[in-house]
Specification:
Elements: E1 10-18, E2 22-29, E3 34-42, H1 43-46, H2 51-62, E4 71-76, E5 80-86, E6 91-92, H3 93-100, H4 105-124, E7 137-139, E8 145-147, H5 176-179, H6 186-203, H7 213-222, H8 233-242, H9 253-257, H10 283-293, H11 297-304, H12 311-324
Antiparallel strand pairs: 1-2, 2-3, 3-5, 4-5, 6-7, 7-8
Bound molecules: ligand 6PV.
Amino acid sequence: VKYNALKYLYDVEKTIGTGGFAKVKLATHLLTGEKVAIKIMNKSLIGDGCPRIKMELEALKDISHHHICKLYQVIETKEHFFIVMEYCSGGELFDHIVEKNKLSEFEARLFFRQILSAVAYLHNVGYVHRDLKPENILLDRDLNLKLIDFGLCAKPVGGMSSHLQTSCGSPTYAAPELIKGHQYIGGKVDVWSLGVLLYALLCGFLPFDCDNIENLYKKILSGKYSEPSWLSEESRKIIRDMLQVDPKERITVDELLSHQWITMGCLDPVTHNSLNLYHEKNNEVLNALGKYHMIESEEIWERINKWDYDYDTATYLLLLNRCKQGLPLRLSTQS
Ligand SMILES: COc1cccc(Nc2ncc(-c3ccc(C(=O)NCC(=O)Nc4ccccc4)cc3)c(OCC3CCNCC3)n2)c1
């Protein structure tokens, strides 16, 4: 199927993922030749004026963190939303763990610190993820982690403390209070999922797993899981701190940032700060764009600095990415 809205802008290639409402296609941004992931949603499937999509898109526009997949462009037509996102060429963390069976404590620490900084940043800007699982954690070409929210979960408007009723996310990683349908604090739900995630990284299998949902729920509500012999005392402790059934007993994200397991090996505490400057102005990229369009770079910046998430935004952000990796800035003329 050819999408007219993408013609002359992107060369759409294979499908790399399909979810409930959406499918994701690998594509090439024609002006820069960079790979992107385009999440295509059929409006008729989503119905009711798509408020959750609009909420997610507003969230994504606010988010700029080196461990969260970047939004490049949004195209809306009568029947579709096209969400152009950063493409992670390393695939899913899940496949990476499966292939390595389990990670050493050192490797798990490096990965987990990256996920923790992404979640801490999200909470700091007032969003809760609520669907943290290996399928939603991707790897870029340098094995840096990139958090995504493939499942399209709504984000709380009222920031962290608002009690959220809507339950979403896969039960395997879902906190006890979430599956009990109780009122819950979003941030605490993410900590439970982080605990399940770290357990999976260190053990190569899940703490609560079952062939049927009933027993899975019972196990999660019991909070009982096995501790394999190879787990160090510190690993057991941080997992225990996160997999507390009672949210009030559960460690907070802020406490996790400087947990002894996190800083082991003389590592600094994890920070929620992003390495990306918000709406960063980069003169090297502006000069390259100015030359290409034969316009003053200041005038280019006037357009870019509106952050309309149109093709210009995508081009600027893709070139900014290349510039930060020390790669040459190229603008293809065959567009
Ligand atoms: C090399 O082989 C491979 C193999 C597999 C993948 C790749 N690469 C690759 N890169 C990029 C994507 C992608 C990025 C963002 C979104 C998204 O929906 N963002 C929205 C979003 O992140 N909201 C949000 C985030 C944080 C807070 C609030 C809101 C969706 C998809 C991808 O997808 C494929 C799926 C497949 C099923 N499992 C999940 C990934 N795949 C490459």
